[in-house]
Amino acid sequence: MQTWLNIDEFIKLSGKSKNDIISLCKEKKLKCKKTNEGIFIEVGSLAKSIVPVQELQIIEKESSIAERTIGMLLSLHEKVLMSKDETIKSLKEENEFLKKSIYSIQEIYEESKITIERLQKQLEICQEELEFCRKKYKLMWGKVLKKENKEE
Questions:
Q1: Residue 30 domain-assigned?
Q2: Is 37 a member of any domain?
Q3: Which residues are registered as beta bridge partners of 40?
Q4: Is 41 contained in some domain?
Q5: The CA-based dihedral angle spanning residues 21, 26, 29, 32, taken in that order and rounded to the nearest 10 degrees
Q6: Residues 56 and 47: beta-carbon distance below 8 Å
Q7: How far apart are CA 136 and CA 87, in angstroms?
Q8: Which residues form the domain of 39?
Q9: Torsion-angle region of 38 (φ positive above 0: left; ψ -120 to 50: alpha; else: beta)
Q10: Residue 79 — left, alpha, or beta (φ > 0 → left; ψ -120 to 50 → alpha)?
Q11: How many C-beta atoms lie closer than 10 Å to residue 46's C-beta?
């Protein structure tokens, strides 16, 4: 696809004078066409007119290096993305494991809490029975001691 600019716009883009551009058109170094609206110049020929031919050939040779570099960068980027996805997957699995562990610990804690409450109630009952036995023992032995004291 060819893009055409009028000569005034082409002058702004190229930075060359109008006489230079017209002489380049006459030398057929620029693709030009003349219409009722004015002179139009093909944009693709801008590079050829501004950049010397030797440099264009070097750029064309170097483009293969640029393409390989871009390809390599894209390949590395793809590997980084794959690595990132694997890392995210690994972290999700680790989080799931930790979540299950926390739930398990919570269940054990609840069971232990219930066991502790039951043992505390049993301990209270045992302490009450022990206190009752002490009082009963005191009363029993207290009467016996009083009888012995009276007999003596």
A1: yes
A2: yes
A3: 6, 33
A4: yes
A5: 70
A6: yes
A7: 72
A8: 4-50
A9: left
A10: alpha
A11: 19
Note whether 67 and 60 are within 8 A (CB).
Answer: no
Terminal Cα distance for the chain, rounded:
137
**Number of domains, the chain:** 1
Put simply, whether the predicted model's pTM sits higher than 0.90 gets the answer no
Measure the CA–CA gap between 34 and 27, rounded to whole angstroms: 15
How far is it, in rounded angstroms, from Cα 51 to Cα 57? Answer: 10
In order along its 152 residues, the chain shows pLDDT tens digits of 567 777 787 777 777 788 888 888 888 777 888 888 788 777 666 555 554 555 555 555 656 666 777 777 888 888 888 889 999 999 999 999 999 999 999 999 999 999 999 999 999 999 999 999 988 888 887 776 676 766 66
Place of tokens 């699995």: 93
What integer pLDDT is reported at residue 21 of this predicted model?
80
Q: Give the DSSP H/E element, type plus range, for residue 32.
A: strand 32-34
Residue corresponding to tokens 């893009």: 3
Cα separation, 39 vs 13, whole angstroms:
15
Residue 91: per-residue pLDDT:
95
Identify whether the C-beta of residue 13 lies closer than 8 Å to the C-beta of residue 5: yes
Evaluate whether residue 18 is within a structural domain.
yes
Tokens found for residue 42 = 């093909």
